[in-house]
Design a protein that fits this description.
Distance between the termini: 73 Å
Structural class: alpha/beta
Shape: globular
Largest sheet: 5 strands, parallel
Helix content: 40-55%
Number of helices: 10
Strand content: 5-15%
Length: 257
């Protein structure tokens, strides 16, 4: 059965997906993004979709929490661009890209990808997700496996910096080539947010707005959130350590040793 998604964002995170989300919303679409997952706690449905695909079962639109949306970008939505294309044969596909693979790696490592390079940052990200969604560890694992560890079996967590940067850049390039090979040319727009409204509107058959294209550089905002979560996590750990120390002192004093 055909679905109702009109625009499928196939680009990875850190390719201007939030700016693209805002642009699509301005053009009249209702766009799914990771923010929607965090706001509505859709992780169980996404995890079930990952599992179903992993088992070789056929996915339907009922497997996705997209009932109220007509477009989507970013993870986990973009991880299912192939399935969503098949379920929405009239949908157009936008491959959001960065200037270079190296630019993507830099942005990835500086924000959401930090969790793949450090156990501490991984714990921070899990703690952040746990404040909003169910089964955060499983969700993070499926998301990152889908475009990193399942694609390059030589990569291991945590990634080594800068040893694995070249492999990450290659994964990004591979993703771009994969999408361009799998999506018919008449359904695909390769888009850099720096290009602005014109190519996007021409592709979607929409009038060009008379104001600048959205530029939601969310790096600072994301890092501020992660920094706050890190402080909260470290405070909790510190309280736990102090509490254990006090308990040990109490037990020792009572035992006479």
């Amino acid at each position: 059965m055909s679905g109702h998604i009109e625009v499928i964002g196939a680009g990875l995170c850190r390719t201007g997906t939030n700016s693209l989300r805002e642009a699509l919303n301005e053009l009249g679409y209702t766009t799914y993004h990771m923010y929607e997952n965090l706001k509505n706690n859709h992780t169980i449905r996404w995890i079930d979709a990952y599992k179903k695909r992993e088992a070789g079962e056929k996915l339907t639109m009922a497997d996705f929490p997209l009932e109220d949306f007509t477009a989507g970008v970013d993870h986990p939505f973009c991880d299912f661009y192939v399935e969503l294309m098949a379920l929405n044969p009239d949908a157009k596909v936008i491959l959001s890209v960065r200037d270079t693979p190296q630019k993507w790696v830099e942005s990835f490592k500086a924000t959401v990808g930090a969790a793949m390079y450090s156990w501490v940052d991984y714990a921070v990200h899990v703690t952040f997700f746990a404040q909003s969604v169910s089964r955060p560890r499983a969700f993070i694992r499926y998301c990152y496996n889908s475009f990193i560890f399942d694609k390059d079996k030589t990569l291991r967590f945590p990634l080594k910096d800068p040893e694995d940067d070249g492999k990450m850049a290659a994964l990004y390039e591979g993703r771009v080539k994969e999408v361009m090979a799998k999506v018919p040319k008449n359904r695909l727009l390769v888009f850099n947010a720096k290009q602005g409204w014109k190519p996007l509107c021409e592709f979607l058959g929409k009038p060009v707005p008379d104001h600048p294209f959205p530029n939601t550089n969310d790096t600072k905002a994301l890092n501020a959130v992660f920094a706050s979560t890190r402080r909260m996590l470290f405070s909790a750990v510190s309280v736990g350590v102090v509490g254990l120390g006090a308990l040990a002192y109490y037990v020792k004093s009572k035992s006479g040793y």
